[in-house]
Amino acid sequence: MIDLGDNPDLRGCLHSIGQMKSLYALGLSSCQFSGEIPPSLWNLTQLVSLDLSYNNFSGQISSSLSNLQNLIALDFSSNNFSGQFPYSISDLRHLEDLDLSNNGFHGKIPSSLFTLPSLSYLILSSNQFTGHIGEISAYSLEQLDVSNNKLHGPIPRSIFHLQNLELLNFSHNCFTENVLWHHFSWKYMCFLDLSSNSLQGELLLSICNASMLEILNLSHNNFTGTIPHCLVSSNRVLSVVDLQNNSFSSIVPESFDVWNNLRTLNLNGNFLEGSLPRSLVNCTRLRVLDLGNNNIEDVFPHWLDTLEELQVLVLRGNKLHSFIPSRNHAFAMLRVLDVSSNNLKGPLLASFFKSFEAMRRLDGKTGLQYLNYNNSGDGFYEDSIGLTLKGSEIQLQKILTVFTSIDLSNNMCEGEIPQIIGEFHALKGLNFSHNGLTGAIPISIGNLRYLEWLDLSSNNFTGRIPTELTNLNFLAVLSLSKNQLEGCIPRGQQFETFSSDSFKGNKDLRGFQLMIPCNA
Asked: Among 91, 226, 252, 353, which is most buried by a count of CB atoms within 10 Å?
């Protein structure tokens, strides 16, 4: 056995590897090898395990791979291999684990692959595979991942009879047609991701028979009908329910079980109506709640402040009204608040914002960390939300744990912005545009040194633009247009880069951006 993995000092091409004919395991993962696999490697006929993952190997896989008849585990993932699927892999009758992910393979996946009798772990994600998935008779399969390819057609019915399946990921392909939920026997399924396809039909009650399911992601499809209530009323395992951007209708499921394990509930972009179910307070582990872009009609849900782990609250694009300030010590962990495009009325009281402790803190974490979940079946899920930037909605595919923003735009809020906003030092984005806010722009906003976008447009702000805003060195987007601001636009720092669009619609405002000199 040779395992030289995780050694970046190993680089170049492999040579003379075929001399070790009694070798039964070769691990060269996470090195710097490049070029094609030398033909001599196929002489190592005693190999049981071969791992060349995370290198820079390229070229096509030789048909001589079929010489390695004793192989149980084969990992060529995260290289630069190309060409058709290596058909010789289908001759490896003892193969249990196969990972070809993150390469440049193309063409069809041979149906013979799905007949290997011992195959339990099959990962073909992030390639360029096309065509249909054939019927599957490898009943030992536990994990099947063909995500991020160009596969199309129906999902084969045989997939729903694989009783040992724990992980199924068909996301980011072009699969179509109804998924036939009433024909499956998943006893151990933990991770199910069929997102970003063109699947359609209704989600039947039998989905709740998958009692071990932890992560369910059916987002960005064409599913219709109602959301089965049993998903939230009788399931104590589910951590993630992501059904965003479908065509589900009726109401949000009402009976969230008191023992539920939900950490993410994303139903954004459907046709849900009615009021917000008060049983959401039972979701004590909830970190992300996104019910945006539906037809929900209710008052602002101040009662959600009992969810002590809630970090993301998105209710944008609904029919919320009667903005009710929360009591003290509420929403302490909240990092993202988006209630834009509703009918919220009333002043922005400091008492509402007072308890946003997480927005005050700069955690000082190194590296990029995201809100995500790993489940027991090794499935990986990353939260995503939509946000408005420069008047357009964009999809933030990953939510940084240090990402913070407040969006109350397109409502009917009034009064002044409370000075307490300047204490939210972790804020990246602040959008109060299209309201009826008055008074001066708070000087304290100049304390938000990590702020990247600020939109206060289409309000009734008066007075001068605080010079303190020039201290915002990370500010990339600024809109103060359509107010009643006056005086000279401050000079320096980022303000030198903003165009007239940031300031137009203020008749008494002057500055080179508006081609009106300050001494005019």
From this structure: 252
Neighbours of 417 (CB within 10 A): 26
Q: DSSP assignment of 261-272, as one string? A: --SEEE--SS--
Q: What CA–CA distance (Å, rounded) separates 470 from 449? A: 10
Whether pLDDT at 327 is above 70: no
pLDDT, the chain, mean: 88
3-state secondary structure (DSSP) of residue 38? coil
Which tokens go with 24? 């039964």
Q: 372, 374, 356: which is closest to 421 by C-alpha?
A: 356
Q: How many angstroms separate the CA atoms of 174 and 133, rounded? A: 11
Give residue-wise pLDDT tens across range 230-285.
Answer: 888 877 889 999 999 999 999 999 889 888 899 999 999 999 999 999 999 999 99
Domain locations in the chain?
1-131
Pair of tokens at residue 89? 């892999």
| pLDDT(4) > 60 | no
d(CA 265, CA 243): 8
Neighbours of 409 (CB within 10 A): 25
Structure tokens at 156: 């084969």
Residue 403's pLDDT is what? 76
CA dihedral 316→317→321→325, nearest 10 degrees, is 10
> What CATH number has the domain spanning 1-131?
3.80.10.10
| 160, HSE (Cβ side, Cα atoms, 13 Å) | 15
Q: What pLDDT is stored for residue 329 in this prediction?
A: 54
pLDDT digit string (tens) for 340-364?
A: 999 999 898 888 888 889 898 876 5
- Could you tell me the two tokens for 323? 């903005």
Return the structure tokens found at 134: 């054939």
Average confidence (pLDDT) over 189-198? 94
Residue 21: pLDDT band by 50, 70, 90 thresholds?
confident
Q: Which of 326, 312, 317, 280 is nearest to 296 (CA)?
A: 317
Question: DSSP 3-state assignment of 312?
Answer: strand
Which is higher by pLDDT, 499 or 3?
499
Please count the helices (runs of H) and the strands (runs of E) in the chain.
2, 43
508 touches 487 (CB < 8 A): yes
CA distance 280 to 282: 5
Amino acid identity, residue 83? G
